[in-house]
Design a protein that fits this description.
alpha/beta; Isopropylmalate Dehydrogenase; Alpha-Beta Plaits; 3 domains; ten-stranded mixed sheet; six-stranded antiparallel sheet; binds nicotinamide-adenine-dinucleotide; metal-binding; oxidoreductase
Length: 482
């Protein structure tokens, strides 16, 4: 008997306890060598007033075992609660969210019988940084944070994953036609790192048309790498069009820890009825077994699961009278899988994990030569509702500080002064761009002096963003219409 691996287990909320019980039963019956530390997280803690949904003792377990099998949890709406899923991924540095999605035609009804793809979603950055502010009465803001090391880690992971699993093509999805700096960086790093993988086909699509192609012709994709929010959305779409969101598993991989779960949520509307599909969590658990070095057990379970699906034994979410043979609940489904342990599927390809996966290296890129950073101006954001863009522009022309001049005012990104259009709708949130009068650099003292002038002229500034160039190239976007 091989040595047991200690893992941390959370039963979660809603359908969580039912599908976790079914999954662990299958793992035990298959001979998985596991020691389980059970932690309590989620709704019960939230309702006790623990705003994070997790207590220090649970972190201790996670940091000790470094492997987490987690059932879905319910995040209460509003009330200042933070998403435990997002927190766990970020606190443990689980930067890669791996979501395989394939169809099980002809046993599970799908319009896409040849679909077999893996979505690799960046897990730590993007709008999920959760940095939001109410800035004026009318305007709220959410910061989209993208870092070069973050892009490098996830993109290299995607290429290495494709190689390790014999995939031929890696597709990058971004919206860099609009977000030229943030999504633009992701795309640029994809092109740079992609050069090191001449054996793999590479392509980039803008996320909107990319998602449309995914929904229409998913078989054209192999590995998809994308930013956090897009990855979240397209992986639910992919799981659904493959057959059911109830079937998709997900691995969250970091350099030191890993978390395995279903892609779906806690499905409160069917909780406690014993009808949920445990397959999503089971697929997460199969990935976990491969990760912790028990690939034979993983393959045994996967093949038994495929045999069960082939036998037409289906839970309600995938049951279709024309193709299914028997509609079962969570428990019965688990029993059917257990009964088939040791069997190989007849029609589906037999799964073997013995030789895979090869180790995936995600070295941090060598620091590229530091670029010369120059401060050349400042965007001052104002909360102001006393008139039109022209009124504000004309007034601010007089509120200047030595070396800085007002060049533009925008509202929600659109230039409204000078020469704005009367048709443009304006809120109470204004970005006033001041740049160096002589086209050179400015100092922090000049910016502070400008802010003091703006404040004493009676304006409420919300925040500033410094305007910098890097090796002479602007590190900021221009106003739309500027
Ligand atoms: P959901 O995924 O829970 O449910 C969406 C739909 O799919 C529902 O109709 C549900 O009945 C069905 N479904 C989901 N899993 C199923 C399964 N295993 N078997 C059969 N049917 C299944 O999404 P939601 O309703 O938007 O979210 C419910 C709660 O889950 C929310 O509180 C949300 O915050 C949370 N959530 C948690 C996670 C996680 O823990 N990783 C992920 C997503 C959502």
């Amino acid at each position: 008997m091989s040595q047991k691996t200690t893992i941390t287990v959370a039963y979660g909320d809603g359908i969580g306890p039912e599908i976790m019980e079914a999954t662990l039963q299958i793992l035990d019956a298959a001979g998985a060598q596991l020691e389980k530390e059970v932690i309590e997280i989620g709704e019960k803690l939230y309702l006790k007033g623990v705003k994070t949904g997790i207590e220090p003792s649970a972190w201790e377990s996670l940091r000790r075992t470094k492997v987490f099998l987690k059932a879905p949890i319910t995040t209460p709406q509003g009330g200042g609660y933070t998403s435990l899923n997002v927190t766990t991924r970020k606190m443990l540095g689980l930067y890669a969210n791996v979501r395989p999605c394939q169809s099980y035609h002809p046993f599970v009804v799908t319009k896409h019988p040849k679909m077999d793809l893996v979505i690799i979603r960046e897990n730590e950055e993007d709008l999920y940084a959760g940095i939001e502010h109410q800035q004026t009465e009318q305007v709220v803001q959410c910061l989209k944070i993208i870092s070069r090391p973050g892009c490098e880690k996830i993109i290299r992971y995607a290429f290495e994953y494709a190689r390790a699993y014999g995939r031929k093509k890696v597709t990058c999805l971004t919206k860099d036609n609009i977000m030229k700096l943030t999504d633009g960086l992701f795309h640029k790093v994809f092109d740079q790192i992609g050069q090191e993988y001449p054996d793999l086909e590479k392509e980039h699509w803008i996320i909107d048309i990319g998602s449309a192609l995914l929904a229409d012709e998913p078989e054209r994709f192999g590995v998809i790498v994308t930013l956090n929010l897009y990855g979240d959305i397209i992986s639910d779409i992919a799981a659904q069009i493959a057959g059911s969101v109830g079937m998709g598993g997900s691995a969250n991989i970091g350099d030191q820890c890993a978390m395995f779960e279903a892609i779906h949520g806690s499905a409160p509307s069917i909780a406690g009825q014993g009808i949920a599909n445990p397959s999503g969590l089971l697929h997460g658990a199969i990935m976990m077994l491969v990760h912790i070095g028990q690939p034979e057990v993983a393959a045994k379970i996967h093949n038994a699961w495929l045999s069960t699906i082939e036998a037409g034994i289906h839970t309600g979410d995938v049951f279709k009278p024309d193709v299914s043979k028997q509609k079962v609940g969570t428990k019965e489904f688990a029993e059917a899988v257990i009964k088939r342990l040791g069997r190989k599927p007849h029609l589906f390809k037999t799964i073997s994990y013995q030789s895979a996966p090869k180790p995936i290296h995600t070295h941090q890129e060598a620091q590229q030569a530091k670029r010369k950073k120059d401060l050349v101006g400042v965007d001052v954001f104002l909360d102001w509702d006393k008139g039109s863009a022209d009124d504000l522009g004309k007034a601010l022309e007089k509120v200047t500080s030595e070396g800085l001049k007002l060049t533009m005012i925008s509202n929600r990104g659109v230039k409204v002064y000078p020469d704005g259009l009367p048709e443009t709708f304006c809120t109470d949130h204004w970005r006033c761009r001041y740049v160096s009068q002589n086209g050179g650099v400015v100092s922090h003292e000049q910016i502070l002096a400008l802010l003091a002038k703006i404040q004493s002229a009676g304006y409420d500034f919300i925040k500033i963003e410094n305007l910098c160039t890097f090796d002479g190239k602007p590190g900021y976007s221009v106003g739309q219409g500027e």
